[in-house]
Design brief:
7-stranded mixed sheet, single chain, mainly beta, 9 strands, elongated
């Protein structure tokens, strides 16, 4: 999603409304694909702070396709979060406490900035639903759909199959 800022903000200290919808590239984070389901909406104001320094302040709204951490199925997740984005074509930032994105001075590419903020706003534990039972750790059956064929249940946690290499440690704390 790109914005042409030259036509929008021709003088320093200029402010303009920036309300756009567009596609943002899917990306990978920690081995997991993060995909956007449809357009991403940005409702914001854009400020020209200095000659080649722009600030975007507003709200991003996006629907993501994430993978459940229990059953491994993809599910849709709606997220909305505030952003403050800083763009410059110069090497040095005005303020060292802000994340800075680089631009060619004429257009701003919002993809990287939105992707970074999406990472910070998705849940650490991604679940398709709070009551997702996940997969059986023994046979791999989806416990939301069927009972597993191995007979494993959550109540059998003490009687689970123990890896033979660790069998000697099973009763270690009972002594």
């Amino acid at each position: 999603m790109t914005v042409n800022v030259v036509d929008m903000l021709q003088e320093v200290n200029a402010v303009a409304d920036l309300n756009i919808s567009g596609t943002v590239k899917d990306f990978e984070y920690m081995g997991e694909k993060i995909a956007f389901d449809g357009d991403v909406d940005l409702t914001s104001k854009i400020f020209r702070v200095k000659s080649k320094y722009y600030k975007v302040v507003g709200t991003v709204k996006a629907r993501l396709i994430l993978q459940c951490g229990r059953c491994m199925k993809n599910y849709k997740f709606l997220t909305e979060f505030p952003v403050e984005l800083h763009f410059t074509s110069k090497e040095k930032a005005i303020d060292d406490d802000v994340d800075l994105y680089y631009t060619d001075g004429d257009t701003i590419d919002l993809d990287e900035a939105i992707q970074t903020n999406v990472i910070m706003n998705i849940p650490a534990k991604r679940l398709c639903s709070d009551d997702c039972k996940g997969l059986c750790p023994v046979c791999g059956a989806d416990l939301d759909i069927e009972c597993c064929s191995c007979g494993h249940t959550d109540n059998d946690s003490d009687d689970q199959a123990v890896d033979s290499r660790f069998a000697i440690l099973k009763d270690f704390f009972d002594k």
